Amino acid sequence: MIVSAAxxxxxxxxxxxxxxxxxxxxxxxxxxxxKKFTYGSVILKRVIEIPEGFxxxxxxxxxxxWSRLPPTGKYGKAAVVHDWLYRNKGDWTxxxxxxxxxxAMTELGVGRFTRWIIYTGVRAGGGSSYKGN
Length: 133
Prior knowledge:
The chain is an alpha+beta fold and 133 residues long.
């Protein structure tokens, strides 16, 4: 069952990517979703729908770190979900959006140290990018 990200689901949710990530590189920095992308979040108790046409830059990692943590690494799908939560208003807080990033990275099998580095980075430096409630 897919529902709008604005409405919680009463059914049990497990952390899972329901649809494949289908996108196109558009300008040397950004990517365009060519199909809807979804993620089930236990933290938000809903399936998050990211619409076709959404533009992401994946993980906003400083260029100096790209040799170790490229923007499109194993955590790329989680970064797309996080970008969407940061750029759209909803009933989630910035802390919840960051926790969903960590939850999704765990689902993708990203190692504990890498998750910690990325999560700590968004908690420390992501505030100016958050456009939520």
